[in-house]
Amino acid sequence: MQWLLIITLLVISIKYLVNLVGKDVISSKVYQTYLRVSGNKAFANLHTKKTELRDINKQRLAISAQDQYAKWTKLNRRWDKLKKEVDELEKTLLVTQAAAINAIKTGLTVVTTGPIWYYRVMHRKSVLVHLPAGLFPSVVEFYLSFPTVARGTIGLGGWMFIVNTMIDSMELIIKNLVFAEKVEKPKETSTSNEEEKKPQPASIEPKIQEIN
Amino acid sequence: MSELDDLSLDPNLQHIFDKESTLKWIFVGGKGGVGKTTSSCSVAIRLAMANPDKQYLLISTDPAHNLSDAFGQKFDKDARPVEGLKNLSCMEIDPSAFMEEMKSQNNFGENDASNPLSIMNDMTSSIPGIDEALSFMEVMKHIKSQNANDNPENANKVDYQTIIFDTAPTGHTLRFLQLPSTLEVLLSKFSEISGKFGPLLNNLMGGAGGGDKQQDMLSKLQDIQVTVGEINKQFQDPDLTTFVCVCISEFLSLYETERLIQELMSYNMDVNSIIVNQLLFSDEADCKRCASRWKMQKKYLNEMNDLYEDFHLIKMPLLGNEIRGLNNLVKFSQFLVNAYDPKKDNHIIFELETKD
């Protein structure tokens, strides 16, 4: 049953990664890659136009509107015309895009949860790991084997619990070691003897002016 | 170089003043302070002078009474001829006065609960877009009267050859020009709906009286729909309608003019003339400031020559005084017909008549 161990580990890791990155991000990236690769004409057209838009904008920002008013205005006109075309194209593509992204999201959900449920049903009673006798206290053995396999072994439920806990702990460690915000070291205060007198602060008595 | 000169359009508005011109609607517009009213008055005056046997009407909806100030004569919502130029009449539509009249006519009454129309009292006092709507109603009136002139009973009604609009300085002008198409869509949808639910509405209104009012309203709306459709058609016909842009030779004004032109083109309205006002023409000036400003204006004028190759670019001088009164306007407006020559015409700068 080693393959079941590995597959479960993989699926749960993938599920975790998908959650981390976000289904929306993944599905839109996948869709865009697909469009680029499949040579969809409308998308290629849109891509060219958008590149041209960015180009024109760059040129526009590079010149002074007041010194080269005619050139700037002509660039403006081109930009407005292109923007209209881009908006139209995007509208038409949006419909197909929404449908495709939904399909990809559904696919992702199925891939990350389907196998687990399948194995849960089909391999309810499969034993994945045989624990050496007496390795853990009997309470631990009970919970590891809960609910479907014999005590002293680890089944699917227990293995998934182990994998999930491991991933969560690793996430915690990595987050706190690598991604935590740096905290400034506090300045050292003088840990002087109690007997040593602190220097008197400057006199803060108000200077009373003589009123004539 | 003469070939290239022939390709560019004449720097005057002669094509508007020609006897062959079929224009019925001329809009004069631009951002505030560029000389719209002076320009619209000048255009109207030259039109009237070029065709003394025809009648012309100049309409302004700017509540600041700028036409009265320009001509030095009181105008109001009834068209009145200009003193000294009988075939040009002016009309100043004041939205607030109109609303007062509406209120008194329709007896919206006191704010009492029994009269449901009394809420109109509060609403009508400040409806945004009321100036556009009023100008539009004037336009509709004139379109209707044009059709009605076939009827011999209306022979004594004044039939204007062309109507010139001095537009509001804000972006409202564009909204007004959008009105015909918006209204057409609205009205067609409304008649669609009323066609489907008319009988039902009749029942709800209850009784024979309600039914009649319903029919009345429907037929009125259909009338309006026809008129609005006609207006739409006329405003998009370059032989009937044109827009004259007014600007000054400075960056922001030009930028606004460009935006205005692009938007007008999106409404399919013909725009082929730009009046550039307040030009200094100070090539040989003693005043350093004038020379410097003229240099800046020339820079933008050159850019405009490049940008607006298929436009009439009319260059008008900055005179020594405000241009008020018919005589001064006549003097100023000659440069709409014959381009201003700084060498020959510069005497006019200080020749304006003043009241003192």
From TrEMBL, chain A:
Cytoplasmic compartment segments: 171-212
Membrane-related topology note: Multi-pass membrane protein
GO CC annotation: endoplasmic reticulum membrane; GET complex; Golgi membrane
A biological process term (GO) from this entry: vesicle-mediated transport
GO molecular function list: protein-membrane adaptor activity
Lumenal topological intervals: 1-4
Keyword Endoplasmic reticulum: yes
Main location: endoplasmic reticulum
Compartments in which it is found: Endoplasmic reticulum membrane; Golgi apparatus membrane
A Pfam family assignment: CHD5
Region of interest: Disordered: 184-212
Position of the signal peptide: 1-19
Bias kind Basic and acidic residues: ranges: 184-199
Keywords: Coiled coil, Endoplasmic reticulum, ER-Golgi transport, Golgi apparatus, Membrane, Signal, Transmembrane, Transmembrane helix, Transport
Subunit structure, interactors included: Component of the Golgi to ER traffic (GET) complex, which is composed of GET1, GET2 and GET3. Within the complex, GET1 and GET2 form a heterotetramer which is stabilized by phosphatidylinositol binding and which binds to the GET3 homodimer.
Free-text function comment from the UniProt entry: Required for the post-translational delivery of tail-anchored (TA) proteins to the endoplasmic reticulum. Together with GET2, acts as a membrane receptor for soluble GET3, which recognizes and selectively binds the transmembrane domain of TA proteins in the cytosol. The GET complex cooperates with the HDEL receptor ERD2 to mediate the ATP-dependent retrieval of resident ER proteins that contain a C-terminal H-D-E-L retention signal from the Golgi to the ER.
Alphabetized HAMAP family for the sequence: Get1
Entry similarity comment: Belongs to the WRB/GET1 family.
Name of the featured protein: Golgi to ER traffic protein 1
UniProtKB/TrEMBL annotation, chain B:
Cellular localization per UniProt: Cytoplasm; Endoplasmic reticulum; Golgi apparatus
Active site: D62
Pfam families: ArsA_ATPase
Binding-site residues for Zn(2+), renumbered to this chain: C287, C290
Molecular function GO labels: ATP binding; ATP hydrolysis activity; metal ion binding
Keywords, alphabetical: ATP-binding, Cytoplasm, Endoplasmic reticulum, Golgi apparatus, Hydrolase, Metal-binding, Nucleotide-binding, Transport, Zinc
Keyword Nucleotide-binding: yes
Binding-site list for ATP: K31, G32, G33, V34, G35, K36, T37, T38, E250, N277
Gene Ontology biological process terms from the UniProt entry: tail-anchored membrane protein insertion into ER membrane
Function (record text): ATPase required for the post-translational delivery of tail-anchored (TA) proteins to the endoplasmic reticulum. Recognizes and selectively binds the transmembrane domain of TA proteins in the cytosol. This complex then targets to the endoplasmic reticulum by membrane-bound receptors GET1 and GET2, where the tail-anchored protein is released for insertion. This process is regulated by ATP binding and hydrolysis. ATP binding drives the homodimer towards the closed dimer state, facilitating recognition of newly synthesized TA membrane proteins. ATP hydrolysis is required for insertion.
Family: Belongs to the arsA ATPase family.
Assembly notes: Homodimer. Component of the Golgi to ER traffic (GET) complex, which is composed of GET1, GET2 and GET3. Within the complex, GET1 and GET2 form a heterotetramer which is stabilized by phosphatidylinositol binding and which binds to the GET3 homodimer. Interacts with the chloride channel protein GEF1.
This protein's name: Guanine nucleotide exchange factor
Record organism: Saccharomycopsis crataegensis
